[in-house]
Specification:
16 helices, three-stranded mixed sheet, alpha+beta, Amidase signature (AS) enzymes, 15 strands, about 15% strand
Length: about 500
């Protein structure tokens, strides 16, 4: 590069957010210098991956423009917000749509305020599919977001831009959200850590709450377990009255990362979870390898039958009606009408238009039945945990990272919506139950597949047991460092 950065690119790409915060605290680099280097990284990498929508010029000029807290534990660390969910005052949020340019946030959402109090410098926006409704990030307006591990493959969705930006070393952390695996899916396909919290642990975006969108949570994607733990500790602030459900006092996560190793009783499931298509052997084998390591190191691992968990088909159908067709099919036209926009095939994807049409046929009785099913399967999961398991181990996804322009997963797919959604259920079978029931789950790196793209394994825990998820993640990170904090072949140090 013609411009010399304040930190060598090899070092910058390997530093996690905790490292960068220490450099700022020690006076070795300033917040403005870090923001400028992140912007340089965007210039280098983003033309190839297309994960970043915008870098804020005013924040680059003055990192304190939006109220970054000098006393926060991550003071001066640059990060970006996924362009969906929590909103930043005075900034656009297009949610992946070609017709939402006029949508400017009037205030910071609570979680954005938490990021600022933690000291993060929010310098831009990352890509997402329309309303986060796809396993890949491909939109009419912004095009295809590619995987820095293999540019012919997708970075995943819906937090695809965030995951690609972290995996390539542009930033050590980006925000993400998860309504059906959208933190864990791109984390698994980019070699990252993705924690999906217990429903209610973190603030929801303004106007969205745990009843109107029961599947959704906010969070981050990172390259190290300590970052995941420390960041969640820093942003876990939700005043009473700001959420549908008050959240109890939480156990700090960071002490769990390197604490004395605890032993767990772990259920292992690699079955079909009621879906007919077969999970690739590469995913099954790697999950069982990690299960073997756990058993060799003192954990109890028990292979279980899928039927011991819940009625999965009832769960998926409830999820389809109550979390997708009914809420989104009604909200999307309302948003368009508020902006004076007419939805057409030129500005809205084929699958989104089909979803809107299908929502017109959903009766209150259908929605009520779906919510009843949600209660039933959530109780079944509670009964599963009553058997004494501490954790459940599965693959994160049920398929390998797909090529870009996948007919199965892109919102532009010409398939009928039911076919499209069936593919999503096939792929996300291991992820969706955490959203439908509110359970916490974490995706961890598990090496590369035959295409050179990362794979992930996932752990579930009972409600409010994120500390157990972080603890087992810390054990695996120490035991298998070759899977963790790896930059993709296309990274800031490779150019």
């Amino acid at each position: 590069m013609s411009i010399s950065p304040p930190i060598s690119w090899d070092s910058y790409g390997q530093y996690d957010a905790t490292d960068l915060a220490k450099l700022v605290t020690d006076g070795e680099v300033s917040p403005q210098e870090l923001a400028s280097q992140a912007a340089m990284a965007v210039d280098m990498i983003n033309p190839k991956i297309n994960g970043v929508i915008e870098v804020f010029a005013d924040t680059l000029a003055n990192p304190y423009t939006d109220g970054m807290d000098r006393n926060g534990p991550f003071h001066g660390v640059p990060m970006m917000m996924k362009d969906l969910g929590s909103r930043m005052k005075g900034r656009q949020q297009e949610s992946g749509y070609a017709w939402m340019e006029q949508h400017i946030a009037e205030e910071d959402d609570l979680l954005v305020g938490n990021f600022r109090r933690a000291g993060f410098n929010l310098i831009g926006r990352t890509t997402t599919p329309e309303d986060g409704m796809a396993a890949v990030t491909e939109t009419i307006k912004f095009g295809i977001t590619r995987n820095p591990w293999n540019l012919d493959h997708s970075s995943g969705g819906s937090s695809g831009g965030s995951a690609a930006s972290v995996a390539s070393g542009i930033l050590p952390v980006c925000s993400a959200s998860d309504g059906g695996g959208s933190i864990r899916l791109p984390a698994s396909w980019n070699g990252l850590i993705g924690l999906k919290n217990t429903r209610g642990r973190l603030p929801m975006p303004t106007g969205v709450h745990e009843a109107s969108l029961p599947s959704g949570v906010e969070g981050v994607v990172t390259r190290t377990v300590r970052d995941t733990a420390a960041i969640h500790d820093a942003i876990c602030r939700k005043p009473l009255g700001t959420g549908f459900m008050p959240y109890p006092a939480v156990q700090p996560l960071l002490p769990e990362v390197a604490g004395a190793a605890r032993k767990f009783r772990i259920a292992l499931s690699t079955g079909n979870w009621s879906r007919s298509n077969i999970v690739p052997a590469q995913l099954i084998d790697r999950t069982k390898e990690i299960a073997g390591w756990l058993e060799d190191n003192g954990h109890t691992v028990e292979l279980i039958d899928d039927s011991a968990i819940c009625d999965f088909e009832a769960l998926y159908q409830a999820y389809k009606v109550a979390n997708w067709i009914a809420p989104l099919g009604n909200v999307i036209p309302q948003m368009a009408e508020a902006l004076g926009v007419i939805l057409t095939p030129e500005n809205t994807s084929h699958q989104t238009l089909q979803l809107i049409e299908l929502s017109k046929s959903i009766r209150y009785a259908d929605f009520a039945a779906a919510m009843d099913a949600n209660v039933m399967v959530t109780r079944q999961w509670g009964q599963f945990w009553e058997q004494g398991f501490d954790l459940l181990l599965t693959p994160t996804m049920a398929d390998l990272c797909p090529s870009v322009n996948s007919e199965k997963y892109s919102l532009g797919s010409p398939l009928k919506f039911d076919q499209f959604f069936d593919h999503a259920l096939d792929l996300c079978r291991y992820a969706i139950p955490a959203n439908e029931t509110g359970l916490p789950a974490i995706s961890l790196p598990a090496g590369l597949d035959s295409n050179g793209c990362p794979m992930g394994v996932q752990f579930y825990a009972p409600w409010n047991h994120e500390h157990d998820l972080v603890h087992i993640a810390g054990q695996l990170e120490q035991a298998m460092p070759h899977f963790y904090n790896n930059l993709a072949p296309l990274n800031v140090g490779s150019l």
